Amino acid sequence: MNSFFQTVYKSSLTLLTDFYQLTMAYGYWKSGISERESVFHLYFRKNPFNSGFTLNSGLELAIDYLNQFRFTDDDLAYLRTIKGADDLVLFEEEFITYLKNMSFSCNVDAIPEGTVVFPYEPLLRISGPLLQCQLLETPLLNIINFHSLISTKAARVVSVAGPSQVLEFGLRRAQGVDGGLSASRAAFIGGCVATSNTLAGKIFGIPVRGTHSHSWVMAFDSEIESFFAFARAMPNNTIFLVDTYNSLEGVKKAIEVANWLKTQGKKMGGIRLDSGDLAYLSIEARKLLDKAGYPDAVIVASNDLDENVIASLKEQGAQIAVWGVGTQLVTAFDQPALGAVYKISAIKSSTGIWEHRIKLSEQSMKISTPGILQVRRFFNKSLFEADMIYDILNSDKLKSSMIIDPEDFTRFCKIPKNCDYEDLLVPVYRDGKLVYSLPKLSEIRERTFIQLRRLHASIRRLMNPHHYPAGLEKKLHDYKLNLIYKFKKKDLIDQGTPDLSIDM
Ligand SMILES: Nc1ncnc2c1ncn2[C@@H]1O[C@H](COP(=O)(O)OP(=O)(O)OP(=O)(O)O)[C@@H](O)[C@H]1O
Ligand SMILES: O=P(O)(O)OC[C@H]1O[C@H](OP(=O)(O)OP(=O)(O)O)[C@H](O)[C@@H]1O
Ligand SMILES: O=C(O)c1cccnc1
């Protein structure tokens, strides 16, 4: 892929961040701590769509963003124009010069795209100068939140549709230009076989597919004339939309054209249904096509489909080989945002010692996890068993095999014995240099399939899925709890709350 952002936007995207990131950057610089080494993690707290998993994606676009992360003269000229309340410039010239000379120097570790992930697991770990890490909060969230959301939705749709294919048809109802393009890429990673979005095909190399619209049929004096014209124009791409006037009558007309195509040595591709009772119509259409000698002609269905409608149609015995899914998929209709956050979890003191940081909240789910985190996935030959979030500064003492739910410490479990394991976050940048070799989009999509196969079916099911065990390693949990008590309930520690030892 060429740079997606530069292809589409042709200018710097460094200012694609919330303004408060720049005011904080200025504040760090004024306070003399802009270069202080710090660690941030990007993670979400709840799987979307009541799903049992989330499919991680968007890393390549995050890399694309980071590769261009520098302030251009244009960006700086704009910053000089921004004024405060008393009409004085906000950013002094020396700070502008600091930004001009800034070059990306962070370490980035990330979970590869196409990996199944779970709440509280860091998808990205950014460490480096405080000011740089801070500025990156908004764009990284923007990219990863949307991408992972749509990939997860696509994985759900594809999992119920399988083994039939899913085409992504969403561009016309996507949220804007990037909403359409990013969604096409994310949907492909989630398992769609192709997109109707031709620019996404060009930029990302996703296969493009398409049928024709109602306007095509309506532009001719009769439906059959329109089918013949389409067949003559493009005899190798003949899926006829049959529902403009009457679906089953439309199928009969498609069969007439198929008979003609046969005389030309060509085969009709099939038909598309786009309204009415898709179960009934597909079953009847299948009978007509089979009877006419076209058992290979595919039936494509579209019309506001999502994973639940597809599951219901399959239960009803619908004879649909290809599903065209648009609006519900690319807008993540039932849950339009993932809600990942980006929090600082450690900072080096002026004497070079790592100090942990924690964000407190009345809601336990919103309390951040301190440390420099990694995710260890345990698995047996066929299935993923459990994920452990641990602090790498404490990894040599990783003896405990207990994980504890970050939201509810009464929920814990032991990692089964004799599992293999792998650490999910892999190096992507070292001192600002890209050290990750980017997989092809087709490889990412393949990874999705393999990853999903390794999740127990009860975790993949659409409704009320089983909870995959993913939690904090016991020492990290104890340490976090201790910090919470230290900040909030110092008196409880004095009374001897169980197991609060910190020896990190
Ligand atoms: N057999 C079925 N079972 C469950 N849902 C279905 C079935 N057939 C179609 N649907 C879905 O029901 C929703 C509404 O279908 P409906 O036929 O009302 O669509 P429509 O666009 O109003 O059709 P029409 O153009 O005929 O008015 C769509 O999401 C469609 O995919
Ligand atoms: O329903 P979705 O999942 O969003 O899938 C895309 C929809 O877009 C098209 O409809 P539209 O009425 O825009 O054009 P058409 O004339 O091609 O049907 C297509 O026929 C689908 O119904
Ligand atoms: O090719 C199609 O059939 C198509 C493309 C976009 C939206 N709806 C249908």
From TrEMBL:
Known catalytic reactions: 5-phospho-alpha-D-ribose 1-diphosphate + nicotinate + ATP + H2O = nicotinate beta-D-ribonucleotide + ADP + phosphate + diphosphate
Alphabetical GO biological process terms: NAD+ biosynthetic process via the salvage pathway
CC per GO annotation: cytosol
EC number: 6.3.4.21
Every Nicotinate phosphoribosyltransferase C-terminal domain range: 375-479
InterPro entries to which the protein is assigned, alphabetical: Aldolase_TIM (IPR013785), N/Namide_PRibTrfase (IPR041525), NAPRTase_C (IPR041619), NAPRTase_N (IPR040727), Nic_PRibTrfase-Fam (IPR007229), Nic_PRibTrfase_pncB (IPR006405), Nicotinate_pribotase-like_C (IPR036068)
Gene Ontology MF terms: nicotinamide phosphoribosyltransferase activity; nicotinate phosphoribosyltransferase activity
Enzyme type, top EC level: ligase
SUPFAM superfamilies assigned: Nicotinate/Quinolinate PRTase C-terminal domain-like (SSF51690), Nicotinate/Quinolinate PRTase N-terminal domain-like (SSF54675)
Post-translational modification: Transiently phosphorylated on a His residue during the reaction cycle. Phosphorylation strongly increases the affinity for substrates and increases the rate of nicotinate D-ribonucleotide production. Dephosphorylation regenerates the low-affinity form of the enzyme, leading to product release.
Gene3D superfamilies: Aldolase class I, nicotinate phosphoribosyltransferase
Pathway: Cofactor biosynthesis; NAD(+) biosynthesis; nicotinate D-ribonucleotide from nicotinate: step 1/1
Keywords tagged on the record: Glycosyltransferase, Ligase, Phosphoprotein, Pyridine nucleotide biosynthesis, Transferase
First and last residue of the signal peptide: none
Domain Nicotinate phosphoribosyltransferase N-terminal: 15-145
Domain (Nicotinate/nicotinamide phosphoribosyltransferase) ranges: 166-349
Function: Catalyzes the first step in the biosynthesis of NAD from nicotinic acid, the ATP-dependent synthesis of beta-nicotinate D-ribonucleotide from nicotinate and 5-phospho-D-ribose 1-phosphate.
Family: Belongs to the NAPRTase family.
Protein name: Nicotinate phosphoribosyltransferase
Organism in which the protein naturally occurs: Fluviispira multicolorata
Biological classification of the source: Bacteria, Pseudomonadati, Bdellovibrionota, Oligoflexia, Silvanigrellales
